[in-house]
Amino acid sequence: MTSPRISFEFFPPQTLDASFRLWETVQMLAPLGPDFVSVTYGAGGTTRDLTHDAVQTIHTHYGLNVAAHLTCVNASRAETLEIANAYAEAGVTEIVALRGDPPKGEGKFTPHPEGFAHACELIEALAETGKFKLRVGAYPEKHPEAESVQANVEWLKRKIDAGAHSAITQFFFEAETFFRFRDACEKAGIDAPIIPGILPIHSWKGVRNFALRCGTSVPAWLDEAFEKAIRDGREDLLATALCTELCSDLIEGGVDHLQFYTLNRPHLTRDVCHALGVTPQASLEKVA
């Protein structure tokens, strides 16, 4: 099995403890030589400044290619493009362009009166600057606000046509879910790379609740497996084995790039990468 290209998602810290955890995560995973790392925005754009600081620090001190998240939430077009320009001035050349989640307490996304109405408008505006490689989100299962999986495919096509270079999917639990989506995208004429998003399961209860909120289906066999593993104190062992198996199935199906949602907890992601043959690169090990 050929070792895959990898990338990691981090989120910006909001407390001192969280800050230490982020830097431990970056130090542990940077030596694995990711193609890029991304840094998220909080719901409603709440971590805008923290995201910018984390992006700049990771880019400057670790020499990693950082893709900064940018959303349409709670900002005018001018403010959003000003943030993008600040990223460009800091040497950032990639952006993950997203509509973004509404602020907590608000049931649905409402565009800023002077802002971008949806992700496609944001992508078009960023593409016109010519400063960035643009990545976007994709949903292999029905998005909670979408009419169908086919609607997800059509939205992705619009994003690619607007200027996106590649897409990163929401997480899923079975390789077949990704393959079905990839086939539908190919049928729709989407030829941009689609990178599967992988969520190592640090806490089954937490991941299961998250899955239900974002429309990711939970197979019955997975519930049963974790119920037994938690009872026997083998939750971490099962999580590592299942994540490694999922990644192996994807690679055997032709996937050459995996994006890991680390949740700023590096150990499980590192162990899975090692199992896939992704090992530290000496030069990057010294940097970290």
Secondary structure: elements and pairs:
Blueprint lengths: L4 E6 L5 H14 L6 E4 L8 H15 L3 E6 L5 H13 L4 E5 L20 H11 L3 E6 L10 H14 L3 E6 L3 H13 L6 E5 L5 H11 L5 H13 L2 H18 L4 E5 L4 H10 L6 H6 L1
Parallel strand pairs: 1-2, 1-8, 2-3, 3-4, 4-5, 5-6, 6-7, 7-8
Helix pairs in contact: 1-10, 8-9, 9-10
Q: For the report, how would you describe the main beta sheet?
A: 8 strands, parallel, barrel
Give the overall shape: globular
Number of DSSP strand runs: 8
Strand content: 5-15%
For the termini, the CA-CA separation is 28 Å
Radius of gyration: 18 Å
The count of helical stretches stands at: 11
Coarse structural class: alpha/beta
Overall average pLDDT: 89
Can you characterise this structure?
The chain has helices at residues 16-29, 48-62, 77-89, 119-129, 149-162, 175-187, 204-214, 220-232, 235-252, 266-275, 282-287, and strands at 5-10, 36-39, 66-71, 94-98, 133-138, 166-171, 194-198, 257-261. 48% of the residues lie in helices and 15% in strands. The protein is of the alpha/beta class. It is globular, with a radius of gyration of 18 Å. It has an eight-stranded parallel barrel with strand order 1-2-3-4-5-6-7-8, surrounded by six helices.
